Amino acid sequence: KKWKQLSRLQRSVILFLFAFLAVCGVISYTSMGEAWKSLTNKPLDDQRTEQEIPGVKLANPAVLPAPQKADANRGDYPELSPQKQPNPPHVRRGPSNLQIKAPQRDTRLKTRHSTIRAVEGPVQTDKGEKTEKSIISWRGAVIEPDQNTEPPSSKIKEPEKPSSVEAEDQKEPVPINERQLAVIEAFRHAWRGYKDFAWGHDELKPLSKSYSEWFGLGLTLIDALDTMWILGLKEEFEEARKWVANDLVFDKNVDVNLFESTIRILGGLLSTYHLSGDGLFLEKAKDIGNRLMPAFKTPSKIPYSDVNIGRGTAHPPRWTSDSTVAEVTSIQLEFRELSRLTGDEKFRKAVDEVMKHVHTLSGKNDGLVPMFINTNSGQFTHLGVYTLGARADSYYEYLLKQWIQGGKKENELLEDYMRAIEGVKKHLLQRSAPKKLTFVGELAHGHFSAKMDHLVCFLPGTLALGAHNGLDADHMKLAEALIETCYQMYAQVETGLSPEIVHFNLHAQKGHKDVEIKPADRHNLLRPETVESLFYMYRFTGDKKYQDWGWEILQNFNKYTRVPTGGYTSINNVQNPSNPEPRDKMESFFLGETLKYMFLLFSDDIDLINLDKYIFNTEAHPLPIWVPA
Ligand code: DMJ
């Protein structure tokens, strides 16, 4: 009634006033919003933290802030896809030549790692930390930080920070040379056979154009991943990566050998993670690492040899409750690194306990260990036999390498290593006739045997690595003498390839060389140890003769073990050049180790896996040294 009584003018004024007040209200609400936003840097309607986004696991301060492939198949990690990470911080990892200078397709055979370009300079993050903004990967894609690491549970300690291998200066790419090209060609030939006839299986049988299974886990493919990365074989690497992403499944009712799967699979995945920065490999490494842990549930904590990775049960071999000493003491580099990356101490505790226990055990002979250890009693068994070959070899290698990996602080490891080398000198070193080659024999219940496995040829490389890390200079002298012997194990044989085992002559006999070979020992499995040691010797001395020796060996592999339809084969008779008797098997370590060490041996680039920053596991998978020199 009242509204109707008002004049038209009065009604207009009132309507105008209402409209004015409404506009003021909207403006003030908006500016409050702006003020709030400027305080929180978040829009009013989006005040959830990332942790609160349903279904999203936030990368716990990236355990190892790995660059991640921008082109990684997000579908592999469905729970991560909704996560928003504007302007992610990035930390570079690995030697610059590996990380940012990879081959481009056309130039692959000219320079090893040609073109990763840009590192945009350091930028300030929201938290005020200085960090790299982004980097262009060798795939030409912007690398994102690792999103795949799980937040630690309350039980899990904060992981260690990555080693300073991250902060390396860029250097000019070192062009690859003819010999390295020959290794690339050999690798591709081997890979072609694997791809055509054994894809996704453990080993290629190149003659029957088929495959064999050991664990049924694509052993050759995994063992070869980081070799492809180092050789710059981008297409092959990508194809293999897809198989790992889509087809590598550890949830299988299958028994695997703890040692072999640790050094080849866990080691291979961890090193590929480090070189590529691709979180997929760390995820897979965690998976297999966890599945191997039941092996340590024994009365003595000395692990069983075999684990069923699907069922979570472990057991010793059927005929004994013993484990092999080299096997239980050569899984440490890998499990320790897994702990560092995940922040979960259980891996490291399990393997450190084994080392501590072995450190205190009686039954050693001046630091030399027997070959077997019982999983119930924790005591050495079959006492009195000492070798640096099969069943004991990598115990010695891992003493030194764990000491280096951990920043040279774990004195017990160093003590045990130094004592053992003294034991070798005292009990196992002899000289052959007629050439006076220094070799490492075996001791059985006080009797010396002039038998040396090809496996022992890891020793010159390990001794040289120790000397490089400040140990006695006479270790280097011994390394020089032993690598000459290992070379002679090839050079004195008709095919120029070493047999599995040699016996040295201790006394000169007319018409006899230093090296004798028994019929049962004259096979060659494409093993890496001599080439491995040649690589260390060349790195530390620069003496080209080591490259030349390696070149001879490569040529002989090509001459006697190469299968025309793809792949290389182990052979039964290194003494018969006209019929070396192919065995129809290409071991995974030929791609994982032998060809990798060849490629590194022929390189003059010390940053191509810098030995002050990386330590190779016993399957040639490089892992970072935690406190690099
Ligand atoms: C590899 O699996 C490893 O090098 C191991 O330490 C010894 N045996 C083979 C290669 O010969």
Automatic annotation (TrEMBL):
Names of the cofactor(s): Ca(2+)
Record's bilayer topology term: Single-pass type II membrane protein
Pathway the protein contributes to: Protein modification; protein glycosylation
Residues that coordinate or bind Ca(2+): 618
Active site location: 260, 393, 500, 529
EC number(s) stated in the UniProt entry for this protein: 3.2.1.-
Gene Ontology BP term (one): carbohydrate metabolic process
The keyword Protein biosynthesis appears for this protein: no
An example Gene Ontology molecular-function term: mannosyl-oligosaccharide 1,2-alpha-mannosidase activity
Protein name: alpha-1,2-Mannosidase
Entry GO CC: endoplasmic reticulum membrane
Record region (Disordered): 53-114, 137-173
